Amino acid sequence: VRLQHDKLDIHTPEQREEVAYKLIAKLPTIAAAAYKHNLGEPIMYPSNEMSYCGNFLRMMFANPCEKFVVNPVAEKALNILFILHADHEQNCSTSAMRNVGSSQADPFCALAGAAAALYGPLHGGANEAVLRMLRQIGSADKVPEFIEKVKSGTGGRLMGFGHRVYKNFDPR
Q1: CA 123, CA 163: separation in Å to the nearest integer?
Q2: Which of 44, 19, 22, 20 is closest to 31 using CA atoms?
Q3: CA within 20 to 30 Å of 152's CA: 25, 46, 52, 123, which one?
């Protein structure tokens, strides 16, 4: 059965499961295509011979004219990062997906709501603040100076550590 958005029966468990697999499989391709388009680079099609994370890295950073070898350390790190994000319980985008889905909207619409929530600066957009901070620091030798400024209150904030939900410790 080929699932189409307008023919999806959300009350059929088999169709819900199949569309979940398809959405999970297509998200890296969509994200990588958007990234490559934004850079003005050619879009890389997925490869069925690669792992989920290896394929995502290839689609993000490969050039169709050159052989691309996935860095195994980056692939493993990305896999761990994806697991940590998936096992993050009721975060904002997960809640949005569940809330939209609870209205019996189809999974495609629920995913659109979750993606909108993920875009926010207090959720997925927080990663951009980490990247800006790293660019501001510049190099590893400037980290101690940056940390001292943060501790003394004369510098910016240390982004990417801690979480507003986890007050005592971060179980991740």
Answers
A1: 10
A2: 44
A3: 123
Angle formed at CA 75 by CA 73 and CA 76, multiple of 5 degrees: 65
**8 in Cβ contact with 15 (< 8 Å):** yes
Task: Give 3-state DSSP helix, strand, coil % of the chain, rounded to 5.
Answer: 60, 0, 40
pTM across the whole model: 0.71
**Cα separation, 153 vs 81, whole angstroms:** 30
The total number of residues written for the chain in this structure: 172
Tokens coding 28: 């890296």
- How far apart, in Å, are the Cα atoms of 83 and each of 9, 78, 79, 88, 118? 29, 9, 6, 9, 16
Query: How far is the C-alpha of 100 from the C-alpha of 107, rounded, in Å?
Result: 9
> pLDDT (tens digit, 9 = 90+) per residue, 82-134?
888 776 677 888 899 999 999 998 888 899 999 999 888 878 788 888 889 99
- Say which DSSP state 104 is in: T
Residue 57: helix, strand or coil by DSSP?
helix
